[in-house]
Structures are given as structure tokens and as C-alpha cells.
Amino acid sequence: MTKVIAVFNQSGGVSKSTLTMNLGYHLAQKKQKVLLVDMDPQASLTAFMGLEPSELDKTVYEALLGDEPLPIHQNIHSMDLAPANINLSGAELELVVADMRDMRLKEALEPVLTQYGFIFIDCPPSLGILSYISLVAATHVLIPIQTEYKALKGTELLLTTIARVRSRANRKLQIAGVVPTMYDNRTGQGSQSLQSITNSLSKIGTIYPPIPRSVGFADAAQEHLPLALYNSKHPSVSILKQIAQSLSVLP
Predict the structure, then answer these.
(1) Residue 187 half-sphere exposure toward CB, CA atoms < 13 A
(2) What does the pLDDT read at residue 150?
(3) pLDDT at position 152, please?
(4) Per the confidence metrics, is the pTM higher than 0.90?
């Protein structure tokens, strides 16, 4: 069965797009067919993958609101991409009155499901309708959390949203785990935050090894490359491989 993984946190700047791109790449290297879906109007994932959002004629927006086929750009670093641009911001308002709005993304993905082993959905940093329909379409949700003091403050709302989806719209949604990001073991706050994340969230799912804070990710994104292609010896590459391996055997 295709695993559709929503990378979800309502906080911005927690490395959702970076994680989506890099985990997708490592799964593709394991001979998995991977599709990335950008559901964020800021279109960071689209830009990271080397497309210019403002120049795109077709994006996820047309698939959600225009009932058009999902526009897929093929074989970018061994992955496929359904891109986004700022037009997607209008979908928040338009979906409020749309028929069967909860199912719009799920239905857009259905024609291509059998073509992929993994579909990653890069959710926007909000608890709005775009994140909600992403969770409805997903089989699993992966939660990146920044290892800072404030990180756990919004977790209750995040888990409440997941629980709301699981209560009715998508009862089979599973939590794939939590990825601590931007970890700095040189600071007391980093170590304490990682311990708090582990203590508070281990009951909901796997806590993966933390991804260290590093300018390498930004440098790789600027070159439109996964970290492993930009610097194969970067210490985070082995951690990303380990997380991808765990995702590859999800039930």
C-alpha cells in the first residue's frame, strides 16, 4: 500500500520542507518511487526543488479547485513533485464553501496512488483547511519539532487537530513519529528541549534521532539539492538515512 506521509506542524521554521525533500530523496535511493506534494502557499519545497513558483502555470491549486489532474514534474533528484505557488493561499477561502472540501486532496491523489511507494505532503505552517485536508489524505503523519523551549507549547493544538481528523474524517491515520530538528547539543536549552520532547511525546510514537542545526541545509537548498548530493559527508546525512529506513518499514 502506498504510504502517504503528511509532514505537519503548525509552527513555521521547523524544517518541514527540508525534511520532506531529504527524506524523499533517501527513500528514492532505496528504489522507492517518491512523489512530493507542496501544500504550502509559501512554496518553499517547490523552490528548494529548483522550480520558480511564480513561473508555474499549473500547481496543486488547479487540482484542488479546478478538478484538473495533479500537475507532476518528474524525475527531480529521482523524485516527482506536485508544486505550489502563492495561488494556493486563495484556496483557504475558496475551500470553505467547496463541495466535499475535506476530500479534495485525497481525490486528487487517487489517480496516481498506484504509481508511488511514498507520497510526502509538505503541510503549511497552520491549523487551517490546507493542513486539515492533507491529514485527511494521509496514511501517516510525521511531526518535526524544533528543539527549543517554545517548541512544545503548540504541541497540544497540533495533537488535537490530528485527533479531530482521526475521530471521523480519517480514522486510519497513524502517527509515523516525531523528528526533533535544529538540535544544538552545545546548549543547555537544546539538551533540555530534546529531553522534554522525548518525555512528553514518546507515548504517541517513535522519537527519531535529532537533526542537528546546520547551515549545510540552507546551503544545499540554495543550490536546489538534497543535503546528500550537496555534501555526502555531512553528519546529518546518516541520520536522515536512518529515519528514511524506519519510514520504509512503516506498517
Answers:
(1) 12
(2) 79
(3) 79
(4) yes
